[in-house]
TrEMBL record, chain A:
It comes from Fictibacillus marinisediminis. Binds a copper B center. It holds the Pfam family COX1. It is found in: Cell membrane. It catalyses: 2 a quinol + O2 = 2 a quinone + 2 H2O. Keywords: Cell membrane, Copper, Electron transport, Heme, Hydrogen ion transport, Ion transport, Iron, Membrane, Metal-binding, Oxidoreductase, Respiratory chain, Transmembrane, Transmembrane helix, Transport. PROSITE patterns: COX1, COX1_CUB. The lineage of its organism: Bacteria, Bacillati, Bacillota, Bacilli, Bacillales. Its EC number is 1.10.3.-. Its cofactor is Cu cation; ferriheme a. GO terms for cellular component: plasma membrane; respiratory chain complex. One of its GO terms (biological process) is aerobic respiration. This is Quinol oxidase subunit 1. Gene3D superfamilies: 1.10.287.70, Cytochrome c oxidase-like, subunit I domain.
From TrEMBL, chain B:
The chain crosses the membrane at residues 25-47, 67-85, 97-116, 136-160, 180-203. It catalyses: 2 a quinol + O2 = 2 a quinone + 2 H2O. The keyword Transmembrane helix applies. Keywords: Cell membrane, Membrane, Oxidoreductase, Transmembrane, Transmembrane helix. This is Quinol oxidase subunit 3. It comes from the Bacteria. PROSITE patterns: COX3. GO terms for cellular component: plasma membrane. Catalyzes quinol oxidation with the concomitant reduction of oxygen to water. GO terms for molecular function: cytochrome-c oxidase activity; oxidoreductase activity.
Length: 647, 206
């Protein structure tokens, strides 16, 4: 292979990316060396098994991926702003919409939510850590390495270009030659390992490590949503694992699962992909529902309306999520009976979702609402998500779907549910729990600017796309003629997209500004309205152990009870005992690095390299297995110091 | 991660440490994920059942004898694995070793027959790339075979740990978990025996 086949060449945008990546890496290396931060980086972050730090790393990576996916989006919107634009060529455009979709779902939305889950859930249930802290680190690093492997594709070897759905035979060797599609297969496969492990880890954590007295129906709604999400992950991700493996066999070893030759079946891919892919959209929406429930109840100062109905609604949504996948290809010849069945099952999901919407509204009814930034995101969510949901029901009508499938109507629909649901949820959760992570709030005034810029930009961008879709503009086209009459609405849409970009920059500025100027906190209940256990410990949460003394729970919203009864929250000296915690470990990072070697080798079909990487993975597994990993004890003196107990 | 130890002699060793209990539950959930994984492979195999293109059909190549021997070896190994755990619970380390090693040998015998079977098929013109059907066949049976291989390697490593450290709540939890895995592979094989081999020989007759 020649160098110019290895590196992507010939496109000024790519050269620009090369230069910026090079400068960033040099800058980072310089910073770490000049300020002698290497040891700090290794000890505090790369080897950590602390759920809060892993959560922060998840969120930081997700914000980085939001930037990458967002730049992809802006490139697409720039190309589509006017008819017959020459900004991107067709192949480049295909690569960009493929990476945009994949990155936003797999490497932005899911990790952002899993990051918040990591930070918050153990605190909400009064646990010292997750059930398997070491495994948690493995989860993060495999996700991170999978994401990095996927991301380098656009400068090394070329990006995948068959869409995030990677439909066969388009994603096969004949129509997608080169390493691009292999990056997709292996990047997702490696990251998927981490997701499955997270699913197992948090199921056990939530089922087994709740504080005394916290029965299942006393769990906070975010914990409930995480529990149900983890069940979906455990049953849906193996399907993706198999589907990706089968396509890898097709592309690398000449198998015939989805090919046109050898009696393969391309529709089998579509079925397997969406059998995972549809539950996946609930993996990224249910935790957001959970967060909005917490936020709305907190800032309306009321107990969540219809708690049990909310739980059962999520259980139903999770069950239905596995039964509707065919609605992603109503027009691909399944026949009237099959389409009818899937049309009805799809619409059924609207019922539990509607129940949740009404419960949020009833929670606010007669509540004393504080319009904080997280609450604004929650209110924006309700309005916009309903727009997305209603258009979803329109799409669910199989007969009508023949009219607007594969148009911008669909594009608009899923952005309305995914951005208004998941992205607003991530922003809301980030602002809400920021003090738990860093010990200070994000600035509220800038936060509201972020909200309005993003919210208005979002609607300006995507609302016109409903009409573009009804006017017949197909999705995934890289240009259109002036005669189509789609030019004006596309221009509006592009303006909205850039407004969202400005909103994102404002968020980044807010993070910087608050780091410099926000008032540091010394109480745990940052908003003064907290209801669940995470607000009963200090902000930021002490690095080692979460709670000096494991709390006891007597009902829903334990912190409200503490506040109302004016109970003393500071733990009594006599109750403090040494706390057992797990040791840090560099093995997860090393293991993930070997996964990178293996994945990179397989992408280019350099099998020796793939084998070296996999052997490395197995060696790290064995090292871990023989490690006695006994952990250490946090001493009473250290706890006293951290909790500022002076007696 | 608290270390609440239970010192009741009626509690099996592997359930005595908190870590052991958590790991066992976690592994049960992992097996749930494995069921989803194999279900997907079974669905794939059954969908591709008649898609043999111009290649050989399963009816032409499958032979009952080899499959029955494999089945016998693997089912017996599950039984001996059960005895090994029984010995472990009686704190009989030697018994655990003897029966586990028999288990591993039976597993290795199973693998040997499977590899022989695969080589035979390839010689008879049925490889991974012959047709969709054979892709499905090699991947589902091969995935199970890979699991058996990993199981043998894993249990061997755990036995080394038991030999070095003795039967503690930690090592016994590892042994117990690996035995769950081994029984699971046996269950999957029963489905493979039915859905792949019997179905391939009987239903694929015309």
């Amino acid at each position: 292979m020649k160098w110019d086949e290895f590196f992507v060449t010939g496109d000024p945008l790519i050269y620009g990316a090369d230069v910026s990546i090079g400068l960033t890496v040099i800058g980072l290396l310089f910073y770490l060396t000049y300020f002698k931060k290497w040891q700090w980086l290794w000890k505090e972050w790369l080897t950590t098994v602390d759920h809060k730090k892993l959560g922060i790393m998840y969120i930081a990576s997700a914000v980085l991926m939001l930037f990458r996916g967002g730049v992809d989006a802006l490139l697409m919107r720039t190309q589509l702003a006017v008819p017959d634009a020459k900004f991107l060529d067709a192949q480049h455009y295909n690569e960009i919409f493929t990476t945009h979709g994949t990155i936003m779902i797999i490497f932005m939305a899911m990790p952002f939510l899993i990051g918040l889950i990591n930070v918050v859930i153990p605190l909400q249930i009064g646990a010292r850590d997750v059930a398997f802290p070491y495994l948690n680190a493995v989860s993060f690093w495999t996700f991170f390495i999978g994401a990095m492997l996927f991301n380098i594709s656009f400068v090394i070897g070329g990006s995948p270009s068959a869409g995030w759905t990677a439909y066969m035979p388009l994603a096969g060797n004949e129509l997608s030659p080169g390493p691009g599609q292999n990056y997709y297969l292996l990047g997702l496969q490696i990251a998927g390992i981490g997701t499955l492990l997270t699913g197992i880890n948090f199921l056990v954590t939530i089922l087994k490590m709740r504080a005394p007295g916290m029965t299942l129906f006393r769990m906070p709604m975010f914990t409930w949503s995480a529990l149900i999400t983890m069940v979906i992950i455990v049953f849906a991700f193996p399907i993706l694992t198999v589907a990706l493996a089968l396509m890898t066999f097709d592309r690398l070893f000449g198998a015939h699962f989805f090919t046109l030759q050898g009696a393969g079946m391309d529709m089998l891919w579509a079925n397997l992909f969406w059998l995972w892919g549809h539950p996946e959209v609930y993996i990224v929406i249910l935790p957001a529902f959970g967060m909005f429930s917490e936020i709305i109840s907190t800032f309306a100062r009321k107990v969540l309306f219809g708690y049990k109905a909310m739980v059962w609604a999520m259980v139903l949504i999770a069950a239905y999520s596995f039964l509707v996948w065919v609605h992603h290809f109503f027009t691909m010849g399944s026949g009237a009976a099959v389409n009818t069945a899937f049309s009805i099952s799809t619409m059924l999901i609207g019922i539990p979702t509607g129940i949740k919407i009404f419960n949020w509204l009833f929670t606010m009814y007669k509540g004393k609402i504080s319009f904080t930034t997280p609450m604004l995101w929650a209110l924006g969510f309700i309005v916009n998500f309903v727009v997305g949901g209603v258009t979803g029901v329109m799409l669910a009508m199989a007969a009508a779907d023949y009219q607007y499938h594969n148009t911008y109507f669909l594009v608009s629909h899923f952005h309305y549910v995914l951005i208004a649901g998941t992205v607003f949820g991530c922003f809301a959760g980030l602002v809400f729990w920021y003090p738990k992570m860093f010990g200070y709030k994000l600035n509220e005034r800038i936060g509201k600017w972020v909200f309005w810029l993003f919210m208005i930009g979002f609607n300006v961008c995507f609302f016109p796309q409903y009409f573009l879709g009804l006017d017949g503009m197909p999705r995934r086209v890289y240009t259109y003629s002036a005669a189509s009459g789609w030019g004006d609405l596309n221009m509006v849409s592009t303006v909205g997209a850039f407004l969202m970009g400005i909103g994102f920059l404002a968020l980044v500025y807010n993070i910087y500004y608050s780091f410099r100027y926000s008032e540091r906190e010394n109480t745990g209940d940052s908003w003064g309205l907290g209801r669940t256990l995470e607000w009963a410990t200090t902000s930021a949460v002490p690095p080692h152990y979460n709670f000096a003394v494991t709390p006891t729970v007597e009902g829903l919203d334990p912190v409200v009870a503490i506040r109302n009864d004016k109970k003393e929250v500071t733990p009594k000296l006599a109750d403090i005992k040494p706390i057992h915690m797990p040791d840090n470990s560099g093995v997860p990072f090393v293991m993930a690095s070997f996964f990178f070697v293996a994945g990179f080798g397989l992408v280019f079909e350099w099998y020796w390299m793939g084998i070296v990487g996999l052997i490395g993975v197995f060696i790290t597994l064995i090292i871990r297995s023989f490690d006695k990993n006994e952990g250490y004890y946090v001493s009473v003196d250290e706890i006293k110091e951290t909790e500022r107990i002076t007696v | 991660m608290a270390h609440a130890e239970v010192h009741d002699h009626n509690t099996p060793l592997e359930y005595q440490s908190e870590t052991g209990r958590l790991n066992i539950l976690g592994f049960w959930i992992f097996l749930g994920a494995e069921i989803a994984l194999f279900s997907t492979l079974f669905a794939t195999y059954l969908v591709l059942m008649y898609r043999t293109a111009d290649g050989p059909t399963p009816h032409e190549l499958f032979e009952l004898k080899g499959v029955l021997i494999e089945t016998f070896l693997l089912l017996t190994s599950s039984f001996t694995c059960g005895i090994a755990i029984h010995e472990m619970r009686k704190r009989n380390r030697k018994g655990l070793f003897v029966w586990m090693i028999i288990t591993l040998l039976l597993g290795a015998g199973f693998l040997g027959y499977e590899i022989y079977e695969f080589v035979t098929y390839v010689h008879e013109g049925a490889a991974l790339g012959t047709s969709a059907f054979w892709s499905g066949f090699f991947v589902i049976v091969g995935t199970h075979g890979l699991h058996v291989t990993m199981g043998i390697a894993w249990i061997t490593l755990i036995l080394i740990q038991v030999a070095r450290r003795g039967l503690t709540p930690q090592t016994s939890a590892k042994v117990f978990i690996s035995s769950l895995y081994w029984h699971f592979l046996d269950v999957v094989w029963i489905f493979i025996f039915t859905a792949v081999y019997l179905t391939g020989m009987v239903l694929h007759n015309g």
